TrEMBL record:
<dbReference type="GO" id="GO:0006364">
    <property type="term" value="P:rRNA processing"/>
</dbReference>
<keyword id="KW-0677">Repeat</keyword>
<dbReference type="InterPro" id="IPR036322">
    <property type="entry name" value="WD40_repeat_dom_sf"/>
</dbReference>
<keyword id="KW-0698">rRNA processing</keyword>
<dbReference type="GO" id="GO:0034388">
    <property type="term" value="C:Pwp2p-containing subcomplex of 90S preribosome"/>
</dbReference>
<keyword id="KW-0853">WD repeat</keyword>
<protein>
    <submittedName>
        <fullName>U3 small nucleolar RNA-associated protein 18 homolog</fullName>
    </submittedName>
</protein>
<feature type="repeat" description="WD">
    <location>
        <begin position="188"/>
        <end position="222"/>
    </location>
</feature>
<dbReference type="GO" id="GO:0032040">
    <property type="term" value="C:small-subunit processome"/>
</dbReference>
<dbReference type="Pfam" id="PF00400">
    <property type="entry name" value="WD40"/>
</dbReference>
<dbReference type="InterPro" id="IPR001680">
    <property type="entry name" value="WD40_rpt"/>
</dbReference>
<dbReference type="InterPro" id="IPR045161">
    <property type="entry name" value="Utp18"/>
</dbReference>
<comment type="similarity">
    <text>Belongs to the WD repeat UTP18 family.</text>
</comment>
<keyword id="KW-0539">Nucleus</keyword>
<dbReference type="InterPro" id="IPR015943">
    <property type="entry name" value="WD40/YVTN_repeat-like_dom_sf"/>
</dbReference>
Length: 359
């Protein structure tokens, strides 16, 4: 119940970036209560923009947290619903999104049978609580996902057949007949369908994006991915709201899907620049609230982007030691309860997204 205005502050020698001080309550007389707290150097380049004047060259941690909360809420127009959970669990919502209390690292999805070579595929079954992995060791495996032991269901070895891509099929009957054939200028670097399957988006290594109508096989739009020299990946959100385009430079442009259908020169809603090497994998979660991006050219190069605030979660991957390594494939479980990836060490790191209650 001590009033901070009635306190005197005595500086002590401090560590780098912090100035410890003793706070003495003047109304406690001879038996003065002594508290030790720290002041943070606000002139550091990561904190300068939070200062409101030279008088704030040093600030207590509590004051800094309050300032960060105020700035974040001002930018967001108030506390968004997705951040309320963080406020309740950690008491702090900073100007950078935090997943520390929202993501739990689990046992690798394929821990019961790691691959002996690079994994190329990780995919959750669309209805069962099962995940599939496949890779260059010529094998394909299925695991029951419980987040604890993830027992193996079955593993198949394919003689002299390294698997570069595997996928669950929703349609069991295949005629092997070519239904549509569409051509673009340059090599195709990625393909994504609209949620209803009526449109298909493709980007080229030349940096162009093509949109086709599947019923008429007609190209209904074509545009240059903003600032892109060479396209590397593409993904469409399941709610039909977003289209993400990855480039060799590592930039991922997030567009309004409606603009991509109707504008000859759509501008990105956000240019995500957190990857420093080629953006080779993109995927939206089933609720279209998260975009996962990765580069297989660098270790730990995986990021999660929150939608619609279009802000990158600041501390993912969360591990202090390397776990992700070079990721070539990303996937979310049907209700976003789990997130996994395939890496070059033959493992499929698995994460439980605590915000989502179902598998």
């Amino acid at each position: 119940g001590t009033n901070m205005e009635d306190m005197s502050f005595i500086k002590l020698p401090g560590n780098e970036g912090k100035q410890p001080m003793i706070v003495v309550s003047e109304d406690s007389r001879d038996d003065a209560e002594v508290l030790v707290c720290f002041r943070v150097d606000m002139k550091h380049r990561f904190r300068r923009n939070l200062m409101k004047g030279e008088a704030e060259s040093a600030m207590t941690k509590q004051k800094l947290q309050q300032r960060m909360r105020e700035q974040f809420q001002k930018a967001m127009g108030g506390t968004p619903s997705w951040a309320e959970t963080l406020v309740k669990t950690s008491g702090l919502t900073s100007c950078r999104l935090c997943v520390r209390d929202q993501v739990k690292k689990c046992l690798h999805a394929n821990s019961a049978r790691p691959s002996e070579d690079r994994l190329t595929t990780v995919q959750f079954h669309p209805s069962a609580q099962v995940v599939m992995t496949a890779g260059l060791d010529q094998s394909l495996s299925l695991f029951q996902v419980d987040g604890k032991t993830n027992p193996k269901i079955q593993s198949i070895h394919l003689e002299r057949f390294p698997v570069h891509k595997a996928q669950f099929s929703r349609a069991p009957d295949h005629t092997k007949e070519v239904v549509r054939s569409m051509k673009i200028n340059g090599d195709v670097s990625g393909v994504a369908f609209s949620p209803d399957g009526s449109k298909v988006f493709a980007n080229s290594e030349d940096g162009e994006v093509y949109v086709w109508d599947m019923r008429s096989s007609r190209c209904v739009n074509r545009f240059t991915d903003d600032g892109c020299v060479r396209g590397t990946s593409i993904a469409s959100s399941q709610n039909g709201q977003y289209l993400a385009c990855g480039s060799q430079s590592g930039v991922v442009n997030v567009y309004s899907q409606e603009a991509c259908l109707n504008s000859a020169n759509p501008k990105p809603l956000k240019a995500v620049m957190n990857l420093l090497t080629s953006a080779t994998a993109l995927t939206f979660n089933p609720t279209s609230e998260i975009l996962a991006i990765a580069s297989r050219a660098e270790d730990e190069a995986v990021r999660l982007v929150h939608l619609p605030s279009l802000t990158v979660f600041s501390n993912f991957p969360v591990a202090k030691r390397k776990i992700v390594y070079r990721a070539s494939c990303l996937d979310f479980s049907p209700h976003s309860g789990f997130f996994s990836l395939a890496n070059n060490k033959g493992h499929a790191p698995l994460y439980r997204l605590l915000h989502y209650k179902e598998f």
